[in-house]
Amino acid sequence: MTTQTITVIKGDGIGPSIVEAAIQILDKVGCDFAYEYVDAGLTALEKTGELLPQATLDAIARNKITLKGPLTTPVGEGFTSINVTLRKQFNLYSNVRPVISFKGTKARYENIDIITIRENTQGMYSGHGQVVSEDGLVAEATSIITREGAERIVRFAFELARREQRQKVTVVHKANILKSTSGLFLKVAREVAAQYSDIQMQEMIVDNACMQLVMNPQQFDVIVTTNLFGDILSDLCAGLVGGLGMAPGANIGEDCAIFEAVHGSAPDIAGKNLANPSSVILASIQMLEHLGMKDKAEKIKAALTDVIASGDRTTRDLGGSHGTTDFTAAMLERL
Fold it and tell me: Of the listed 64, 113, 168, 235, which one is catalytic?
């Protein structure tokens, strides 16, 4: 059996410390991965003058599986978001963001278990036709939805629901107003849903979905939606379980996948051994599930559940007073 090589982008700010924690945990459960470390973001910019060096792109393409810490895209002219660039470059059309309630977090809800599946390459996020008039008084951008893109993401959602034995897929849209783009998305979603009689399909307008998520989040199971709505809803869902520190993300394409912490690089606490590594630990659990290593994924999840529930050496955002290394040590002991 050949060893799986994982491309690792440690990232900026707190990235290196939380990614290192996740790798210690992966090694402890006996994953036997080889790691190829490459740079992106500010770290890469300082070393190479580029946010996303060619060597990094080559490694992602070669190894197919990447674990990634948070990256900083400098704010201002001329810098394209690194995440958007990666999604386009590798056609990572599906963004999978699961949120689960963990006992011991400061979350407002219990028994949340929602997967948001966001179309990752089209819609308002694709950056098409961004124009500001010369006098600076008018700005415009174009949203593009294709039948192929809509069908691919909705089918992905229903296949995932079937595989994970989920009961319901909620298609979130704004077809009542955005009759062209959201209308096409909904039309295609209905066609795809008709092929999955074993799974309930629910349609919900995005503004109502936001309200329902706050009032009765337990009614949701799998959500599938377009790029911009998915970006907003997946962060809202993270808020249901205690914030972005408890929310991982996977960007999945036909032959490449990137698993990441979805929160920022938190430069204010970088190097202070304060960060909660849960998001990137959860991302590595997603990665193991993607690789068919479900038993190891379950072990890590059980350890994480126990550490957070017991409050043993948890970080400040979880109500504890410990740091990244103590939290990681508590995880490693359980494994």
Answer: 235
Which residue in the block uniquely carries the two structure tokens 């995005």? Answer: 206
Of 187, 207, 272, 294, which residue is the catalytic one? Answer: 207
**Res 75: pLDDT:** 75
d(CA 227, CA 16): 28
Catalytic residue among 231, 296, 299, 312: 231
Does residue 312 have an active-site annotation? no
pTM above threshold 0.90: yes
Q: Which of 10, 68, 174, 296 is an active site residue?
A: 174
Helix (H) or strand (E) holding 116: strand 113-119
Cα(39)–Cα(311) distance, rounded to whole angstroms? 34
312 near 53, Cβ under 8 Å? no
Which H or E run includes 45?
Answer: helix 42-48
Q: Clarify whether 235 is annotated catalytic.
A: yes
The answer for residues whose C-beta is within 8 angstroms of residue 146's C-beta and 6 or more apart is 122
Taking the C-alpha atoms of residue 328 and residue 307, their distance in angstroms, rounded to an integer, is: 10
Cβ burial of 258 (10 Å; 0-12, 13-18, 19+) is buried
Q: What's the pLDDT at 44? A: 94
Report the pLDDT value the prediction gives residue 251, as an integer from 0 to 100.
98
Residue from 125, 296, 299, 312 carrying the catalytic annotation: 125
Q: What is the pLDDT of residue 78?
A: 67
Q: Are 283 and 291 in contact (CB under 8 A)?
A: no
What pLDDT was estimated at residue 301? 98
Sheet of strand 34-38, all strands in order from the earlier edge strand to the far edge: 34-38, 5-9, 65-68, 257-261, 248-252, 94-100, 113-119, 222-225, 168-173, 200-205
What domains does the chain contain, in order, with CATH numbers?
A: 1-93+245-335 (3.40.718.10), 108-240 (3.40.718.10)
Q: How many CA atoms lie within 13 A of 186 on its CB side?
A: 17
Verify whether residue 174 is a known catalytic residue.
yes
Q: What does the CA dihedral 302, 308, 311, 316 come to, rounded to 10 degrees? A: 150
Active site residue 326: no
Does the active-site annotation cover 207? yes
Which stretches of the chain score pLDDT less than 70? Answer: 1, 76-78
